[in-house]
Amino acid sequence: MNPLTFLTLLAFGTASVSAAEPKPESEFTTTDPKKVKILEDSSREKDPEIDHFKHLCPGLGGYQVIHEGGDLRSWINLIYDGSKTDLMGDTLSACPGQFPAKANDVVQWRGFRQGGTFVPYAIIYRMMSSADDEKQTRLETLVIIKLAKDKSSVVGHVAAKEGNEKAEMLADKLCKP
Description:
Elements: H1 3-20, E1 25-30, E2 37-41, E3 52-57, E4 63-70, E5 73-80, E6 83-85, H2 88-94, E7 98-102, E8 106-114, E9 117-130, E10 138-146, E11 153-159, H3 164-175
Antiparallel strand pairs: 1-8, 2-3, 3-4, 4-5, 5-6, 7-9, 8-9, 9-10, 10-11
């Protein structure tokens, strides 16, 4: 076989493999308290000792999201097949500053579409905290969770100023099956 034919076949084979590989996509769910099931919330108590809440939120791929918090902090945990994964410690550790809390009502899911069904492998969500300085500077962090059923875990984080695209690339690199 001459070298030009070999290179042409090699290029065609590489293009066929990459074309067959599904492209990562994003889907979004919410933690908006008006759109989720309230499991507990200190705002509904007469004299709560401390602020606290636990909300059951929609998920994808068999996962349920629990948005919970207390003492001015909040995070998400996951439930898969009845088993809860506690992500609080790793999430709060990933965020610099004081009083880290979920910054908005959005949960971004990264995954593939297989036969019309979205199959997630990662979650990205925004956290906000305050720097320990005189101005109480706002710090934002994008937290990345690798979905692995009841073994899901925080695998990375990106300063929000670096952009959502960087968080997506990191999620795809660390979490894609």
